[in-house]
């Protein structure tokens, strides 16, 4: 695009590239002026304290001036190149850009485009909100399911522990009860055997006493001791069966 068209476009938007470049160049010149002015003052103060202050002051002033011209030439050359680059590349309007016929219409078009972009952004934001809400709901459901599974697992462990303790208690009570019943049966048997022993002892005494009385007789009465012993044995067997 030609320079006149570019300038017209920049003017339409209240922009002036050349003014920007000039302000930068003036700022660089001001910085150089301040730097060399400070250098000249420092050199004058140093030479004033010496004996031959006037001669040395003039020599230093010439040296500072020479350095300034040397550095200024290099800076000017570099800044010229920078100015050309900015004007040719940074502030050149690409081809195809048309000047707006009416500034107000261009603003309306810009606002319309911004409005459309805002609508699209709002739509995307709504979509993201819906997705985030769905993810949050799913996360809450998973969290509730996790708590439910943890609760079921805890109840299952408690149930298993209760069943185990109950079985151990039943086994312990069963063995204890069996031992107690064996002890009771043994006690009954000991008591019954004691009774049988007493009965046989009495029977033996009666038999001896009877033989003494009927020692001169031929007939000896029937001994009922055998039937009594069988009854006692049968009673002992019944005790064992019911134990």
From TrEMBL:
Keyword field: Cell cycle, Cell division, Centromere, Chromosome, Coiled coil, Kinetochore, Mitosis
Superkingdom, natural source: Eukaryota
Any one GO CC term of the record: MIS12/MIND type complex
InterPro entries: Centromere_Mis12 (IPR008685)
Single GO BP term: cell division
Coiled-coil region: 125-152
Location in the cell: Chromosome, Centromere, Kinetochore
Pfam short name (any one): Mis12
Family recorded in the similarity comment: Belongs to the mis12 family.
Protein name: Protein MIS12-like protein isoform X1
């Amino acid at each position: 695009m030609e320079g006149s068209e570019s300038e017209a476009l920049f003017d339409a938007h209240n922009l002036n590239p050349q003014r920007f470049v000039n302000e930068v160049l003036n700022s660089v010149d001001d910085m150089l002026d301040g730097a060399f002015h400070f250098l000249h003052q420092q050199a004058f103060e140093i030479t004033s304290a010496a004996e031959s202050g006037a001669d040395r002051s003039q020599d230093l002033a010439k040296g500072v001036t020479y350095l300034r011209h040397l550095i200024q030439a290099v800076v000017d050359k570099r800044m010229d190149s920078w100015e050309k680059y900015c004007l040719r590349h940074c502030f050149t309007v690409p081809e195809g850009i048309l000047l707006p016929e009416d500034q107000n219409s261009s603003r309306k078009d810009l606002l319309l485009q911004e409005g459309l972009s805002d609508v699209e952004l709002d739509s995307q934001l709504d979509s993201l909100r819906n997705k985030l809400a769905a993810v949050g709901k799913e996360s809450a459901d998973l969290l509730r399911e996790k708590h439910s599974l943890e609760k079921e697992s805890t109840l299952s462990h408690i149930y298993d522990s209760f069943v185990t303790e109950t079985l151990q208690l039943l086994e312990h009570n069963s063995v204890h009860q069996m031992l107690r019943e064996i002890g009771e049966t043994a006690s009954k048997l000991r008591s019954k055997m004691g009774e049988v022993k007493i009965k046989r002892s009495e029977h033996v005494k009666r038999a001896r006493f009877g033989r003494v009385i009927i020692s001169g007789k031929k007939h000896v009465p029937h001994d009922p001791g055998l039937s009594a012993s069988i009854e006692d044995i049968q009673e002992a067997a019944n005790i064992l069966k019911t134990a």
